[in-house]
Amino acid sequence: MTQRIYAGTRKGLFAIDRTRSGWEVSKTALLGDPISVLLPETDGVVTVAQALGHFGVKIKRSTDGAESFEERPVPVYPEQPEGVEDIDPIHKTPIPWDLKSVWSLETGGEDRPDELWCGTIPGGLFHSSDRGDNWQLIETLWYHDGRKQWMGGGADYPGIHSVCVDPRDSSTVRIGVSCGGIWSTYDHGETWAVEGVGLRADYAPPEYAKEPNGQDAHRVVQCKESPDTVWIQHHNGIFLSRDAGRSCDEITDVDPSVFGFAVVVHPEDPDSAWFVPGVKDEFRYPVDGKLVVTRTRDGGKSFEKLTDGLPQEHAYDLVYRHAMDIDASGDSIAFGSTTGNLFVSDNQGDHWQSVSHTLPPIHCVRFAPD
Amino acid sequence: MPTIEFTANLRRHVDCPTEAIEADTLAASLDEYFCRWPGVRGFILDDQGAVRHHVKILIDGKNIRDRRKLSDTLEPSSQIHVFQALSGG
């Protein structure tokens, strides 16, 4: 049974532990500085990426359960050659070759225990084969002509927010990009291609609405035991792929809404997934001020609206894309909101325990593996 | 000999003591400083070697002119101050 959750917030790191009376905040660390993403591993190891407002991006790692942290190397973009232009195709503004934020941090396959993948804003994917001692930009993707079609969404520049290493073959890696759709490599990064056919952007001009490259996939998650199932919370709604992200079908008519950022899929049951909806893109708060989680158990054919333990009046929480997680058992789910609410369920969302109403805005939530 | 001093707000993150460094330009001074204190570089300069957007550098009380190449010149008595700008964060 999972014992610890980490929440990375606008103002530091919080550890939440399981106690006899429920989940409780047990520890704070790195207070005062924003954490963009975090990666807990076994044996008390947790790595966090900070986005310091003035002084750039930093990575820190603890090997003692967040008691103490050491500074770790950060990915560095290569020198931009004189005369080489890199322009956001929509905003027509220069893409800086400069690390703005670490937006995803994941371990490699079990056969590559020292491997880390790091997705960043403004769109570079970095790889480490020595647990972050050294980072290499994946140049095949950075210099890919298709990358030049990526654009900023909510952030000023494009960013890689999801990295899914295929459990069957760690040379197969899928990434989710806002705004760049779903990209895959089948040869450990030697070559890349855009996939995610079927994603649809209502907000784009009709001739571009179904163009896979440039789609604003907010979050991409893959079922561990059935990796051909990939769920996508897209700017436009919910999509489901049964062929590992190559093609996607849109799921509509979900009460109360299909708009959101976060999605988790059960590690063993590919048909079970959870979402936290907002009204829609220009109204980023729960429908009617009622915070709900939507759950499907049948691959998106039907959804339940889970409310037990969640505020049902005057709730204006938005749940960011990295701020919901499901544990290895598939029973415990945690999510945190922009309002500083943190909720945990130990029965797949049937009931939610409120851990705190007063945390800083929550950017990322993850269970620490036992 | 020119001196270089950092805001106390940075000392919270990384050791960055005041140093006296023989140098003709800001670039040369910072190069030498980062040799002595390599952890400081990433706090002050971005990946392209330019001054971070929300960092401000003064030489003898005046804003530097060249935030990309750091070509501003130093006098033997120059004092370099590195601040966080009153923006961003």
Which structural class do the helices and strands of chain A define? mainly beta
Rg over alpha carbons of chain A: 19 Å
The CATH topology of chain B turns out to be: Ubiquitin-like (UB roll)
Give the CA-CA distance, first to last residue of chain B.
Answer: 33 Å
Return the structural class of chain B: alpha+beta
Number of DSSP strands of chain A?
A: 28
Helix content of chain B: 10-25%
The helix/strand order of chain A is: EEEEEEEEEEEHEEEEEEEEEEEEEEEEE
Number of domains of chain B: 1
Distance between the termini of chain A: 8 Å
Question: How confident is the prediction overall: mean pLDDT of chain B?
Answer: 94
Helix segment tally of chain A: 1
Flag low-confidence runs of chain A. Answer: none
Number of helices of chain B: 3
- The order of strands across the largest sheet of chain A is 3-2-1-28
Would you write up a description of this structure?
The complex is a heterodimer of chains A (370) and B (89). Among the domains of chain A are: 1-72 and 323-370, no CATH class; 195-319, no CATH class. Helix content of chain A is 1%, strand content 37%. Chain A has one helix and 28 strands. Chain B has 89 residues and is of the alpha+beta class. A five-stranded mixed β-sheet of chain B has the order 2-1-5-3-4. Helices cover 21% and strands 21% of the residues of chain B. Chain A binds chain B through residues 52-56, 58, 71, 74, 76-80, 96-99, and chain B through 9-10, 13-14, 39, 42-44, 46-49, 52, 54-55, 84-85, 88-89.
